[in-house]
């Protein structure tokens, strides 16, 4: 069983930065992918980005490219989402998920990010 715990959310002004953390207890079977999603009020959950744990390869949705960076710390079994140049449209509950290349088997509880204009 894998448990994911997000932290680091909060309120920030437009242009500010936040770093979200997703601490994992245990690891799912390989291939092992960590993904970040977000869900804004009244909208569907959307993919933000992902990282392959083994090689560190990342990819992002277009709207966050150049502003968001995903990284991982092997020793701490933790994945990070560094968010810079935040915009009001980034306001959402952010979730991390762990799984394989085609699945999201485990989810965290979510952390709220609010970007004020």
Report on this structure.
- This protein is mainly beta.
- It is 0% helix and 53% strand.
- It has strands at 3-7, 10-13, 18-25, 33-39, 46-52, 58-60, 68-73, 78-83, 92-99, 106-107, 111-116.
- Strands 2, 4, 5, 6, 9, 10 and 11 form a 7-stranded mixed beta sheet that branches. The chain has a 4-stranded antiparallel beta sheet with strand order 1-3-8-7, with no helix packed on it.
- The model has no long low-confidence stretch (mean pLDDT 93).
Rg value: 13 Å
Structural class: mainly beta
Number of distinct beta strands: 11
- Enumerate the spans where pLDDT stays under 50 for 5 or more consecutive residues: none
How far the N terminus sits from the C terminus, by CA atoms, comes to 40 Å
Overall pLDDT score:
93
What is the beta-strand fraction?
over 45%
Give the SSE string: EEEEEEEEEEE
What count of helical segments does DSSP give?
0
Global shape? globular
Question: Quick one: biggest sheet?
Answer: 7 strands, mixed
What share of the residues lie within helices?
Answer: under 10%
């Amino acid at each position: 069983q894998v448990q994911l715990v997000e932290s680091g959310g909060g309120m920030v002004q437009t242009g500010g930065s936040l770093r979200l953390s997703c601490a994992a207890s245990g690891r799912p079977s390989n291939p092992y992918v960590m993904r970040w999603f977000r869900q804004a009020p009244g909208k569907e959950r959307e993919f933000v980005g992902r990282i392959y744990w083994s090689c560190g390869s990342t990819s992002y949705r277009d709207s966050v490219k150049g502003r968001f960076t995903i990284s991982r710390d092997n020793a701490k079994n933790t994945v990070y989402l560094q968010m810079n140049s935040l915009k009001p449209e980034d306001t959402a509950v952010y979730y991390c998920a762990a799984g394989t290349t085609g699945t999201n088997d485990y989810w965290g509880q979510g952390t709220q990010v609010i970007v004020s204009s």
